[in-house]
Design a protein that fits this description.
Elements lengths: L1 H100 L1
Length: 102
């Protein structure tokens, strides 16, 4: 009977050892996955930070373009006023020439 119990104990010890090795392997695999996830998360955070910086740069470019647009509109208005003034000057010049001829 003692032999039987010893044999069962050895079999159970072997099963426990096998399960312990399996758990150890799973633990190692879990640690590897955890490190991988942390690395991926760090990369995502880094990319997010880079995108935030670029968003600021893009906003600054957008503001400059808006300023350029306002300056161009003002320039177009000034050009239109100059054209109007030249037209008036031309009309007045014709009037003065006509008055001078009479």
């Amino acid at each position: 009977m003692k032999k039987y119990f010893n044999r069962i104990k050895e079999e159970l010890d072997a099963i426990v050892e096998e399960k312990a090795m399996g758990l150890k392997d799973l633990s190692i695999e879990l640690n590897v996955h955890e490190k991988t996830v942390k690395e991926v998360y760090n990369r995502i955070e880094q990319r997010g930070s880079e995108l935030s910086e670029r968003a600021g740069e893009i906003e600054a470019i957008h503001d400059r373009i808006d300023n350029y647009d306002a300056v161009l509109k003002e320039l177009a208005d000034m050009t239109h006023r100059v054209d109007d003034n030249l037209k008036k000057l031309h009309e007045e010049s014709i009037f003065v020439d006509n008055v001078g001829k009479n």
